[in-house]
Amino acid sequence: MAHSYTPGLKVTEKAIVRKERRLPLKGNVLVKLGDVVKADDIVATTTLPGDVERLNLAGKLGVPSKEAPSFLKVKIGDTVKKDEIIAESKGFFGFFKSSIQSPIDGAVESFSEITGMLTLRKPPKKVEIDAYVNGKVVKVIENEGIVLETPATFIQGIFGIGGEVKGVLKLAVMSPDYVLKPQDITDDMKGKILIGGSLVTNEILRACVAKGVIGIVAGGINDKELKEFLGEEIGVAITGQEEKGITVVVTEGFGQMSMAKKTFDILKKNDGKKASINGATQIRAGVLRPEVIVTYDLNTDISESKHTEMGMDIGSVVRIIRQPFFGAIGRVVGLPHQLQKIETEAHVRVLEFQFDDGKKIVLPRTNVELIEE
Predict the structure, then answer these.
(1) N or C: which end of the chain has fewer CB within 10 A?
(2) DSSP label at residue 294
């Protein structure tokens, strides 16, 4: 049988999912190998150095840099409070003193006799990472984090915004091609993750935020509407850091695009169950996908996705990722061995793609991505 490998999205009702939970710098891991943890459990913690604040002490006092330390009312290493007087000039006969207050709560870190700059540092920030999903600790990364393993429904999207959130899935539409309207977003959706239809608009996103919806999974989103919601263009690096009050996972692409029936049906089955979602996306390289995870009981017997190692072959479900059929999902019905000439005059490997209605087209293999079942 003809065979090829094309990395792509996973849309799997039951699979073994592994998640690495790692601190931004070394700290303390709070769980051990073999522990069973819940999504909200804190598994590792560390502290990040506080931000630095610099004051031109010599300039503010109007004295040479080497003389400035003699006017300090605090020592290097001292803790200070915001608005506390940390330096004061002597003035003339006790009058016309210049006082310098600390702009922050923090500590006095250093002073440079060359520049006359006093460095203050804000208090360290405590950083905690939770498990994100229910699971079992299968690896401990010393002083850094863990790897969890769990049986779960695992759906990857094509694009997303917003970070990790956890909440109950709520079906907001009855069909994957439905376009949500503002009146569809109701008070009982507060704290929920909505299963949407074919399009998310700026109006819908704002309605969701107003009602306290924490996440939404839908087929498509209009890039112009997304820009209006965010107030800026999407960058070319990584999304996921947006703080707009909601996490969005788009499963099909940009524009009005019905959610794939398989994806919709899987999400519909999980209506009312707790899910973990993350909108983080590596836009250019495609190495980081937005995701929806719904975990099962740890004792659930699950075989991993059949395409995880095999890649693409006859019968594989794929998505077209180039115009004019961007977002279309179908099956591979042919993988010719010989190179074929395409419109650009290049000779490339191609595949035969079949739409749901039976129509077939031939296109370069690089124009599709695998949807792992």
Answers:
(1) N
(2) E
Structure tokens at 130: 């939770």
Task: Give the separation between CA 169 and CA 270, rounded to whole angstroms.
Answer: 7
Please say if the pLDDT value at position 189 is more than 70: yes
> In angstroms, rounded to a whole number, what is the distance separating the alpha carbons of residues 260 and 272?
20
The pair of three-digit structure tokens given for residue 317, joined into one six-digit string: 């479900």
Q: Which two tokens stand for residue 119?
A: 């460095």
Phi and psi at residue 164, to the nearest 5°: -70, 130
The letter for the amino acid at 78 is: D
Q: What is the pLDDT of residue 46?
A: 95
The top-scoring range by mean pLDDT among 196-210, 241-255, 308-322, 353-367 is: 196-210
Q: Rounded to two decimals, what is the model's pTM?
A: 0.76
Domains of the chain (ranges; CATH) run 52-121 (2.40.50), 158-289 (3.50.30), 307-372 (2.30.30.30)
Cis omega (within 30 of 0) for bond into 151: no
Evaluate whether 363 touches 353 at the Cβ level (below 8 Å). Answer: yes
> How far is the CA of 286 from the CAs of 21, 47, 49, 163, 175, in angstroms?
20, 31, 32, 17, 28
